[in-house]
From TrEMBL, chain A:
Domain called Cytochrome c assembly protein: residue spans: 15-185
Annotated transmembrane regions: 22-45, 57-85, 92-116, 128-150, 162-182, 202-223
Chief localisation class: membrane
Gene it is expressed from: ccmC
Family, as annotated: Belongs to the CcmC/CycZ/HelC family.
Provenance organism: Pseudomonas neustonica
Keyword terms: Cell inner membrane, Cell membrane, Cytochrome c-type biogenesis, Membrane, Transmembrane, Transmembrane helix, Transport
Protein name: Heme exporter protein C
Topological category with respect to the lipid bilayer: Multi-pass membrane protein
Compartments where located: Cell inner membrane; Membrane
InterPro entries linked to this entry: Cyt_c_assembly (IPR002541), Cyt_c_biogenesis_CcmC (IPR003557), Cyt_c_biogenesis_CcsA/CcmC (IPR045062)
Reported function: Required for the export of heme to the periplasm for the biogenesis of c-type cytochromes.
Automatic annotation (TrEMBL), chain B:
Bilayer topology annotation: Single-pass type II membrane protein
NCBIfam families to which the protein is assigned, alphabetical: PRK13165.1, PRK13254.1-1, PRK13254.1-3, PRK13254.1-5
Residues annotated as signal peptide: none
Name this polypeptide is given: Cytochrome c-type biogenesis protein CcmE
Annotated positions binding heme: H124, Y128
Family that this chain belongs to: Belongs to the CcmE/CycJ family.
Role, per record: Heme chaperone required for the biogenesis of c-type cytochromes. Transiently binds heme delivered by CcmC and transfers the heme to apo-cytochromes in a process facilitated by CcmF and CcmH.
Family matches, as InterPro entries: CcmE, CcmE-like_sf, NA-bd_OB-fold
Compartments in which it is found: Cell membrane; Membrane
Regions of this protein lying in the Extracellular compartment: 30-154
Pfam families linked: CcmE (PF03100)
Length: 247, 154
């Protein structure tokens, strides 16, 4: 297997050029998908037989929760790549993705809480799913705080990478909490093995929203990473050239 | 792969496995503390601390809900399929509360084994469907029951 592609990924200049070409397409696709998903989900999808219209919060809650967990797994992978291959871009990705993941977790918790009041009768209950999701938020906060507390960039990169890797054990706990324990939160509607406990006219807009959220996440991450790369490599000649050209 | 990198990768994987094992042991030791509620079987079997506030959860038995005429007092039975526990509650039940629906009640067991609840939460299941579909399914079920075929239940 050739490792050239992998090592090229580590070059900030190469990353800056490729991501610049990718950005407009990504922006167009995700904004389009988001518009379709929101209109479809909020206006055209049928209401639920028990919850009525309040179930529509699923179109924000579920994509946010999926992204919160995917983003954390990405942090852990970036942490491993950063520690093993000492790739600087992996650290850039880790630092830039953590705040987005924290916001996604926050949105998932808040929308869940808003939905919980009319459906369950309470905003918050210390059940396994809700608590493990709160721990995920604290893990994100921990990573962000650790980064800010250590002024040396290499030390901070190592420390946050270790924290991201160790915290990844929480992800399967979130996923399987509803199966392992008695919880107030319902078990998964979508599984790999069975057909979804939801009709297509409800889950198709949800799928669109999930893809749109992934697109927006990638877009946001690339924008943040490009800025961070410029900030870190400001002494390099290619950065000077870009900045001179744009000013 | 470079031997140094391989060594680092193996070290990281060992750390993940170690932390995972430690967390798994801790969680399995805390099994009952993490469960949000006791099932009726556990309550009937006496696994429940007598003088503490507990949560009981299960399906509301069809036809078991009785309301007092002059107050908000209600009582109903919950089941997990094998055992039944009666719950008494005074207050407004959540919108999703209905017979056949899962609920979680917080309260104390009295001498007769009735849970005197001061909070009742409705548990939502993972099923979503439009009202027309739900109605069609109910009609089909009713028709089947009328025809004398054994109706499927939980």
């Amino acid at each position: 297997m050739s490792w050239t592609f992998f090592h090229k990924l580590g070059s900030p200049k190469w990353f800056y050029e490729i991501s610049g070409k990718l950005l407009p397409w990504l922006a167009l696709a995700s904004v389009l998908l988001l518009a379709i998903g929101v209109v479809w989900g909020l206006f055209y999808a049928p209401e639920d037989y028990q919850q009525g219209n309040s179930f529509r919060i699923i179109y924000i809650h579920v994509p946010a929760a999926i992204l919160a967990q995917s983003c954390y797994m990405m942090l852990a992978v970036a942490g491993i790549v950063g520690l093993v291959w000492r790739m600087k871009l992996a650290d850039v990705a880790l630092q830039c993705a953590a705040p987005i993941g924290a916001w996604m977790t926050f949105v998932a918790l808040i929308t869940g809480s808003i939905w919980g009041k009319p459906t369950w009768g309470t905003y918050w209950e210390w059940d396994a799913r809700l608590t493990s999701m709160l721990i995920l938020l604290f893990l994100y906060f921990g990573i962000i705080a650790l980064r800010m507390a250590i002024s040396n960039r290499d030390t901070a990169a190592k420390a946050t990478a270790v924290m991201a890797i160790v915290g990844v054990v929480n992800i399967p706990i979130i996923k399987y909490s509803v199966d392992w324990w008695n919880t107030l939160h319902q078990p998964a509607t979508f599984t790999m093995t069975e057909k979804p406990a939801m009709p297509p006219e409800m889950w198709l807009p949800l799928l669109v929203m999930v893809i749109a959220f992934y697109g927006l996440f990638a877009l946001n991450l690339l924008l943040r990473m490009r800025l961070e790369v410029l900030r870190r490599e400001y002494k390099a000649r290619w950065v000077r050239e870009i900045l001179e050209k744009s000013s | 792969m470079h031997p140094l990198r391989r060594k680092r990768l193996i070290l990281i994987l060992l750390v993940i496995i170690g932390v995972g094992a430690a967390v798994a042991l801790a969680l399995s030791a805390l099994q009952q503390n993490i469960n949000l509620f006791y099932t009726p079987s556990q309550i009937v079997a006496g696994e429940v601390p007598g003088d503490a506030r507990i949560r009981a959860g299960g399906m509301v038995v069809e036809g078991s809900l009785t309301r007092a005429k002059d107050s908000l007092d209600v009582h109903f039975d919950v089941t997990d399929g094998t055992h039944v526990v009666t719950i008494a509650y005074s207050g407004i039940l959540p919108d999703l509360f209905r017979e056949g629906q899962g609920i979680v009640a917080l309260g104390r067991l009295d001498a007769e084994g009735v849970l005197q609840a001061d909070e009742v939460l409705a548990k939502h299941d993972e099923e979503y469907m439009p009202p027309e579909v739900a109605k069609a399914m109910n009609d089909a079920k009713a028709k089947k029951a009328a025809d004398g075929a054994p109706a499927s239940n939980y």
